[in-house]
Amino acid sequence: MTERNPKEQERDATLRLIYTTTAAWRKNVAASGPEKYTEAFIKKQIEEFDLGKRHLANMMGEDPETFTQEDIDRAIAYLFPSGLFDKRARPMMKHPSEIFPEQRKIQWGEDGRPFHFLFYTGKQSYYSLMHETYEKLLNVQKHQDQLVAQGFSLQKEKKNLVGSRWLTKTELEGMLLEKLSDDDYSRFIRLLEKLMTLPCSDIEENYIKKFSKEIAVQLQKVSTEPLKYDEQGVAFSTGEGVRKTSRATAVVYDNGTGKITVNGIDILRYFPVLQDREQLLFPFQFLDRVGKHDAICTVSGGGRSSQAGAIRLATAKALRSFVTETEVEFMRQAGLLTVDPRVRERKKPGQEGARRKFTWKKR
Amino acid sequence: MLRSVKGFICRPLKLDHGYALHMAAKDCFSSVVSQDVQTPAEKPRAIFYTNESDPAQHSEQHEGRHYSIPLEEVKAVFPHGLPYRFQQQIKTFQEACVMVRKPALELFTYLKNSNFAHPVVRYVIYGERGTGKTMTLCHVVHFCARQGWLVLHIPDAHLWVKNCKELMQSSYNKERLDQPLQASFWLRNFRTTNEHFLKEIKTQQKYVWGKRDSTEQGRPLGEVVEQGLTRVKNASDAVGVVLKEIKQQCCLGSFRVLVAVDGVNALWGRTTLKKEDKSPVSPEELTLVYNLRKMVMNNWSGGAVVTTLSQTGSLFKPSSAHLPHELLGKEGFDALDPFVPILVPNYTEREFESCYHYYLHCRWLQHEKARTEDGKEELRFLSGCNPWQLERLSAPL
Name one GO biological process term (chain B) (predicted). Predict the structure, then answer.
């Protein structure tokens, strides 16, 4: 009995040690966050990229020294042709800084002390940014006071704010590499706007420019073609339109009675459905020129609805030549001049259609 | 900066407009609306309306205008001739307004100047779908009825070659087939139209219907019609007898006969009927069609034959076919040749305006945008000046 006791105790002790749940062993993937790339890893990737670039240039028979990113893209598209719709899914070869997202380096040294003095606030970059901006503000105010003391009048020219916008929250997060809340973001923007409104903020214009972006001008300057004149002296103009798989061309004549012919057949017989004829009516009605133009159209491909849409686009494009610039802008905003990008979605394997799944059977 | 996109707003709203606009409701509405709405509406009535209710007096000056037929006359002259939608329109507006159009005027001149001693001239009214062929035919029927002609109006010959529930073997001729229901229906309407003629015309030979029934020679034709209606089995034969008698006696010249057939291409096409052994029936095996074909021949004189081609009810013909040659087929064309073709086109500008103002006057177009010029242009574009399309478009407005 006494001999057994220490062995029992040992066994009990070992039993107690072994008794842990399997859940504790499994690695918690989600909690560890996104994959962390070490600096050495990134450096290696950059070296490999440069080497690969030179090999590619050699393969294509071009000079490795003057091989730009566009050349790389063209070469890859040539060597690995892909029919995938999404451009991001196609094979690509880009500099590692574009592929691997920027990550924050370790914020503390070997002794465990953080580098930045605001580390323990939790949002060090945000607060440091706020401090910086406020510093600039104080700077400007000081300058202002100096000018007032010297006797200069303060005049603020109205800066044109139309062409620029502030960075969005996501863009700012990308810049600072840390998460912001909506409140933080709005505070920052308010501070920037306050800085903008001060008369002498021109000093800090460079700093402010870092946080603003130009809005790209929407209007693509598509030049409208001039009117052409045929034998009798009647003005006409042509336009082309596409919708799904239909292709249409329209020739719109002036001094007409509102008669429209499609492939040699009157629209009343070619489009028996009212909806299609309403589509054709839309461009003319929008410009208040319902009975004034004649049109001769040819269309091929697609079904009745897509043919109607294609002809509508073609007539709208043709009517641009008859109409003033402002009206063209109105047409564009009404959506008469935009090509409808919707096409038939592909059927996926494992599903009955593009979206429809097979009937779900419980057992 | 963005202008209100009026192009979108201009779409006509699909208002729910039932056909049950009672006359009383219309009166209430007109009394509620202020006085000044009435006076401008009355003045331009001359654009689309004419008081001349006798078709014989219609001439080019009345072209494009509507004239109204009194409702009792409608019941007497057209028990079965008018298109279904027009009948509903009559019920809604409580008046039957027909537009005077060029093809009808043309036909009137021909009829007035025709020599009744010569064999009958056959007129074929043809045109695209919904352009007003049946309405032209009804106009001509009204004209002849006013003139005192005997009118043989077959509203739709297609009804005789399809959807027949009862087909019996003919007692008169073993190979032919009878259609008692259609025949009795037609006889009833024929009686309503031509009451006084039935008493005047006398039979010229004895007809034996069965073991106990027979009609003696010299009896009024009304008796034959009664016989057909009471003994439904003999209805088709009664129809045949009526047609034969009329044809024989018309040559004598005591009265004029107008044979008005709508959808005459049914007589020479195919049928959808089948015999008991599932073999298809050809049109000449039907008694009604056989007799009607004899009537449409030009071997008699003293009247006129006005027919319409119709693609809508036709069997086994493509929807784009509307010329006589396509719809009649070789057989029909040869049978009807020679004939005078009359094309019925879509509305002209004037006729369209007239129809539009008529609908406005009857307050059929309720949408406020319909009263504007833009609305009119839109209607013109969307309907393509086709009467049928215009009617269908303005119904929900």
Answer: apoptotic process
SS3 for B342? strand
CA distance A346 to A343: 9
pLDDT at A219: 56
Separation of alpha carbons A193 and A201, rounded Å: 11
Report the residue of chain B nearest A275, measured CA to CA: B382
pLDDT digits (tens, 9 = 90+) for A135-153: 999 999 998 888 888 887 7
Sign of CA pseudo-dihedral A174, A180, A182, A186: negative
Q: Give the mean model confidence (pLDDT) for residues B140-165.
A: 84
Subunit contact A334:B5, Cβ cutoff 8 A:
yes
> Cα torsion at B383, B384, B388, B389 (round to 10°)?
-20
Collapsing DSSP to helix, strand or coil, B305 comes out as: strand
Q: How many angstroms separate the CA of residue B57 from the nearest CA in chain A?
A: 34
Nearest-CA neighbor of B310 among B259, B258, B266? B266
Whole-prediction pTM value?
0.69
Instruction: Provide the percentage of residues in chain A whose pLDDT is more than 90.
Output: 34
Whole-number Å distance between alpha carbons of A166 and A335: 28
Helices A325-334 and A274-286, packing angle to 10 deg: 150
Q: Which one of B2, B7, B389 has the shortest CB-CB distance to A282?
A: B7
Q: Name the residue among A258, A266, A286 with its Cβ closest to that of B380.
A: A258
Q: How far is B377 from chain A (nearest CA, A)?
A: 6
The answer to whether residue A110 scores a pLDDT higher than 90 is no
Closest residue in B to A267 (Cα–Cα): B384
**Interface ipTM:** 0.75
- Write out the DSSP string of A310-351: HHHHHHHHHHGGGS-HHHHHHHHHHTSSS-----PPPPPTTB
pLDDT tens column, A165-184: 888 999 999 888 888 999 99
Q: Are B210 and B230 in contact (CB under 8 A)?
A: no
Cβ contact, residue pair A258, B377, below 8 Å: yes
Interface probe for A, chosen from B4, B379, B382, B386 (most Cβ of A below 10 Å), is B382
